[in-house]
């Protein structure tokens, strides 16, 4: 392991290892902590297991998914590593929301590369998640460059955008309750206007619905959305994704789940389907 | 549902329902919040499903197990309800640790019935868990009086003591990393000296190792203990349980798990075995 990585926690789990790793991240110019789950198959001499990158939602850290999703049982069985980054740059030098709100700044990086001050130096979460983090993970752990991406809410937006912006980089993508059209909903408008500035034409490069129009790769999208999700109408609007996918001829499986809300109880219920979706594409 | 129960949260999960319920508890003379998971089978007209009572460890509330154990997937499949109470009485009128420590008072009721002031009024968690809570649950939810009990750490102690003190009340019992001999370890000595007073002879009625000597029912004990648990030698001492069980001729399956620590990553790894252990006894 490289000198600039520090293991801050380690737990045995389902025969594999869950690690929390701190490192100096160049893209976001601060220390970052990510979690990695290595399945038992990764302990075999010479093994290189494929990786699902999981992007969490607003207010989360690297910890929420690993502790609450119930994903590690099947990941162990499938021989799939999971990497969960933090949801923003953090630290005393990293500017947050000026009003201390939870939906912007710390815990709310929106997986974009900010262009506006004072955010442009640190808020480069797309670059971090798509390039620096996989490079660090692949250099230091027994994982391969076969990658999938998935996420929840803000992280569902992140997963869709990472896949749509980077053809060939991910073998599969899926999302739980993603913000599919951030340019047109309050969470996204707040974040994009500050990270990317007032020119809305620049926002299209970070909006899954807009990116579908331009996509050159037709990577199938799997999306689960709870019908009892309190953010459904105002922030999530899965119908916009359906319309955009239909217009573009892009394959989308959108599953509306009656009774389910926005919580990890919802994610836990359907996470196995997303792991199998990734594993099938990764040939894990 | 009775007028004095309030649903404070509800989430669909694995086709069933997770509820957080607040009620006025007479035994502990304060408002208490417990969680209940009702599997899909409980929604069938006229159904009465069996219940696993889960007792959590120090600092926990009703939430930790439900969010972190990954138990609800198999509970749904087995048709098993799970009830998770809080770990102590709480509130501004409930005395806590005089020094604000985390191992006594709020979040640390130790599942005993206190006899010493100022704790005797509220700290009656054994009575609450064994009698009042099941009565409330069985009167208000579609569950039966077939009960199992399990727990972790302080709650593993609680599970063993609840089963050993109340022959016939539970169909099965199991524990993760239980405090098996609280009379002889720092956590237990601190708690028992304050809740039960200085006469150590009274402590025996709340100590699994001592209770094994007096047991009239030979309910098999299932215990998982991580070998990398940082509390193993000082607080948990599973060998004391092994010795006591052997001396009493009491059936014990003690599984030492190499590499596993005290966390919910450990619990998640082996919880399915405990659910199946309970379900087999409950004929769930």
Automatic annotation (TrEMBL), chains A, B:
Entry keyword annotation includes Calcium: no
Residue numbers annotated as active site: 153, 229, 262
Any one cellular-component term (Gene Ontology): cytosol
Residues in the signal sequence: none
Xref: InterPro entries: AB_hydrolase_fold, Esterase-like, S-formylglutathione_hydrol
Listed EC numbers: 3.1.2.12
Listed GO biological process terms: formaldehyde catabolic process
Assigned keywords, A-Z: Hydrolase, Serine esterase
Catalyses which reaction(s): S-formylglutathione + H2O = formate + glutathione + H(+)
Pfam families assigned: Esterase (PF00756)
Keyword match Methyltransferase: no
Domain of life: Bacteria
GO molecular function, one term: S-formylglutathione hydrolase activity
Entry's family note: Belongs to the esterase D family.
Role: Serine hydrolase involved in the detoxification of formaldehyde.
Protein name listed in UniProt: S-formylglutathione hydrolase
UniProt organism field: Caenispirillum bisanense
């Amino acid at each position: 392991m490289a000198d600039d990585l520090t293991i801050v926690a380690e737990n045995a789990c389902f025969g594999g290892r869950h690690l929390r790793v701190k490192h100096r991240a160049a893209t976001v110019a601060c220390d970052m902590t990510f979690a990695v789950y290595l399945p038992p198959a990764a302990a075999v001499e010479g093994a290189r297991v494929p990786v699902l990158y999981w992007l969490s939602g607003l207010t989360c850290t690297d910890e929420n998914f690993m502790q609450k999703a119930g994903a590690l049982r099947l990941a162990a069985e499938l021989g799939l590593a999971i990497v969960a980054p933090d949801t923003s740059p953090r630290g005393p030098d990293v500017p947050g929301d000026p009003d201390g709100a939870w939906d912007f700044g710390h815990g709310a990086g929106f997986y974009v590369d900010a262009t506006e001050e004072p955010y442009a130096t640190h808020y480069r979460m797309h670059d971090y998640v798509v390039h620096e983090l996989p490079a660090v993970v692949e250099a230091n752990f027994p994982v391969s460059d076969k990658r999938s991406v998935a996420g929840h809410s803000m992280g569902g937006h992140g997963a869709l955008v990472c896949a749509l912006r980077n053809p060939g980089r991910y073998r599969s993508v899926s999302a739980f309750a993603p913000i599919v059209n951030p340019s047109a909903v309050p969470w996204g408008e707040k974040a994009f206007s500050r990270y990317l500035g007032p020119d809305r034409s620049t926002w299209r490069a970070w909006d899954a619905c807009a990116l579908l129009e331009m996509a050159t790769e037709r990577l199938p999208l799997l999306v689960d959305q709870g019908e009892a999700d309190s953010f459904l109408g105002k922030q999530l609007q899965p119908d916009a994704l359906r319309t955009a996918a239909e217009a573009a001829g892009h394959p989308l499986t959108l599953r509306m789940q009656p009774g389910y809300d926005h919580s990890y109880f919802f994610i836990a219920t359907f996470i196995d389907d997303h792991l199998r979706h990734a594993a099938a594409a990764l040939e894990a």
